[in-house]
Amino acid sequence: MSDAHGQNMMRLKFAATLNDEALPENVDPDIEIAYIDIGNVDSSGHHFSQTHGASA
């Protein structure tokens, strides 16, 4: 499937994976993780901002 600009498009579930490298139980609870919130992704797959948060 392609968009109007000829770029390949696919459903997110086919492009992303889940929990490939889970954090170990003994990870520092104050470690900050950068992630993309699904609410910041538009229907074209472009993301607007990255979120940072604690792991615990």
Count of DSSP helices? 1
User: How are helices and strands ordered from N to C?
Assistant: HEE
Radius of gyration over all CA atoms, rounded: 15 Å
- List low-confidence stretches: none
Determine the structural class based on helices, strands and strand pairing: mainly beta
> Got a strand count?
2
Main β-sheet, in a few words?
2 strands, antiparallel
What's the overall geometry? Answer: elongated
Provide the residue-averaged pLDDT: 77
* Strand line-up in the sheet with most strands: 1-2
Residues in helix, %: under 10%
- How much of the polypeptide forms β-strand, as a percent range? 5-15%
Q: Between the first and last Cα atoms, what is the distance in angstroms?
A: 39 Å
Can you describe this structure?
With 56 residues, the chain is mostly beta strands. It has a domain at 20-56. The chain is 7% helix and 14% strand. It contains one helix and two strands. The protein has one helix spanning 12-15; strands at residues 32-35, 51-54. Strands 1-2 form a two-stranded antiparallel ribbon. The longest helix is centred in the first third of the chain and has 4 residues, at 12-15. The mean pLDDT is 77.
Question: Can you tag this structure with a few keywords?
Answer:
mainly beta; two-stranded antiparallel sheet; 56 residues
Concise summary:
The protein has 56 residues and is mainly β. The chain has one helix at 12-15, and strands spanning 32-35, 51-54. The termini are far apart.
Itemize the secondary structure elements and their pairings.
Layout (H helix, E strand, L loop, with lengths): L11 H4 L16 E4 L15 E4 L2
Antiparallel strand pairs: 1-2
